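Predict both folds.
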Amino acid sequence: MPCNQNCNQGRNCNCGKNMDRATVVVATLLLICIVSIGFGLYKIMNGNKGQPCSVEVQFKDSKATYIGTSV
């Protein structure tokens, strides 16, 4: 209901509540966006570190073990 401060018909004309509710909804959505972006940046920076691994290679007359991280 639009609020025009004409409350003599017995209706609930509390005009400030709609604005407060909108502010809470927008603030909550903004907080979710900030947390999501922060988590995404964290995963980009730290999530791509490879697992430690080793590869053993057999040559004709010798063996070699390469130690590193996976991609």
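Second protein follows, with its predicted structure tokens after the sequence.
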Amino acid sequence: MHRVLRPGPRPFIAFGVLFGVITMLLLGVALAHGRGLQMFEPIVGVAVLYAVLAAGVLRARIVVSDDALAWRPPFGLLEQSVALSRVTVSVASVLAEPEHPVTLEIFAGGKVPALTLRLKLFRQNDVAWLISLPQLKVDR
């Protein structure tokens, strides 16, 4: 088994809506004060910020192999991993959507998680598949 989970469209839509609203507010303020062209730079700044966030999200990966699980966070430099044979229990944290956990804390014998996965970036069906893996021993 080797599977790579990549981010779904959800974070891009959320960021798009947020930055779209900010852009519309900037344009509204500029037009109300007769400064339409002066708002070009802040709007470009909003677009650049969106691009940076989107690029970070695109970097995120969860790689599941036969013997290990690896996590590359969106803005982290280092990939973290845990051997599946060391996993003692995993705990899923749920907020509003019980079928799509926010995080998965994977413990490997200690009281501190060996790995914490942020799952909201990923597609719901990929998260359901990950949570169903018997090697992760998810405590429901």
